[in-house]
Fold this sequence. Notes:
heterodimer; A: four-stranded antiparallel β-sheet; B: Anaerobic Ribonucleotide-triphosphate Reductase Large Chain; eleven-stranded mixed β-sheet; two-stranded antiparallel sheet
Amino acid sequence: MNKVIITVLGKDRxxxxxxxxxxxxxxxxxxxxxxxxILQHQFAGFFIVDPPSNTxxxxxxxxxxxxxxxxxxxxxxxxxxxxxxxxxxxKGETFLITxxxxxxxxxxxxxxxIISQHNANIENLKAVFKGGSDPTANIMSYQVFIAIDIxxxxxxxxxxxxxxxxxxxxxxxxxxxxxxxxKI
Amino acid sequence: MFxxxxxxxxxxxxxxxxxxxxxxxxxxxxxxxISHDLKVFKNNIRKKIITHAENLVDVCDTVGEKYGIHVVNxxxxxxxxxxVGGCFSSDQMVEIAHxxxxxxKKVNIxxxxxxxxxxxxxxxxGDQALIDALPRALSQTERVCASVNxxxxxxxxxxxxxxxxxxxxxxxxxxxxxEDGLACAKLCVFSxxxxxxxxxxGAYLGVGVADAVIxxxxxxxxxxxxxxxxxxxxxxxxxxxxxxxxIKKTACKVTRVGELIxxxxxxxxxxQFGVVDLSLAPTPTVGDxxxxxxxxxxxxxxxxxxxxxxxxxxxDAVKKGGVFASSHVGGLSGAFIPVSEDLNIANAADKGFLSxxxxxxxxxxxxxGLDMVPIPGDITVECLAGIIADEMAIGMINSKTTATRxxxxxxxxxxxKVYFGGLLGEARIMNxxxxxxxxxxxxxxxxxxxxxxxxxx
Lengths: 184, 457
């Protein structure tokens, strides 16, 4: 059987990682990769595991659902399809695109649409809070991988134009500047 | 992905704290341009400089845009003209200055440095020709910067050169009397001049370096000031040891930005990368000031008692942060205290907190010297030479760079307003006590011998 990706969602509380990892251990799965985040007290976790070779996905999923049911968490299981093109083989550069200004509906939708239209890939998106209650200090940060064949000039012009329309300050900076300042 | 505070602090540094790359300076060796024929020499330097520098501005802008960091000034430094043009007369030196000015316009840079001489242990004919040419060269051009090194720790102080420079400064001021002596803002007198400094007006390319090299000058007084303020707001109980640590860490970050940009510019131009000069260089903009750092450190103004200690701490922390960040730190790498270029320092002088004597004392612990100081136009040559000699002595004895960029403003006296414009700023003329004296000391000439600690071999 292929590797499996397990997505776990629910209200954050102590013991979630322990619960999931112990169930996977009982099921004789090797936990290969995991990531988690907490957004406004909601837990979201992703686990890529290598199950025993004779595992049936349907049975595996049901077993997992049953074991986790009492915890109030939601679980989704799917197989990981082999990626024929590794990310490392695509040449390109990563930029951080940051918009600063008043929060408004459709902000992410409008910027992500432009990024998508230019075939660039959003690798990470986060709302950054400066603290305090300043309504103008809403910061959205998109970490975007831009392949070498994408016209960055056109993409950046479109993003700047949209920011101007929405009265937002936009900063487009290569990721390395953040590394240089913050990662020693 | 980065943490929230990493994203916010990086953006704040650029957006609100004036973090920028103050200067990318392309150093060009002109020794292979030497000719006894002035026309050939001028053609050679034109061809070589333009070949290397024609894409400098575009590349700097492109790299700056990629990282969201503005490269404010793109400049060129060259081999000392007194060496590569050593066979020419002073009139011919003036012609060379015009040629350099024209080349600077052609490649769209604001300053070209290296109209320079190294005379710490004697004045050769080429050096004398250049010194004689300085007043005309600097008053007839806009973009040429000049420097003359009159002292080193290893050689002592050439007092003949000190007096000659005082005379040259007075003449240069007189020739630009209608611009408040502006020519003198492009002329530095040095002790222990660094050969890889990217900052004007003292930048030149030394003789022991590559054919072409990119040196980067980063600034960031606003970033340092805000870092101090932010941390003190969070924890008012910080002591000076803690604050020095904050300055050091901030300087480290700023240096890394400079090296990142400098290396990419150098790579794109296919030119060797030289050094990052992390100097806290101010501009006349509020929030981009060294003087404001003193206030963040709890002093009423730069110049009050405690200022020398604060500057010593600041300069040292900046150097330590820079050295940790990069193995290729050079130039001056410390704190500048130019009077007219820093609105806060100019105001401190105006209000009487900062005197020229205190300024001189402070230069014993920082990177430069009496920088961009407007002084009364009627100061005697002897008094001016005395001030220069004092400053050179501080550099010589302390094995550090010191310099003077003094502007005796014709027709104006202490307290009068002068305006140089742009980054050169504006200020009121500082009072110089005893400026009418014509003491014999500087007229004896000769060499003040090197100090005992120069004997290191």
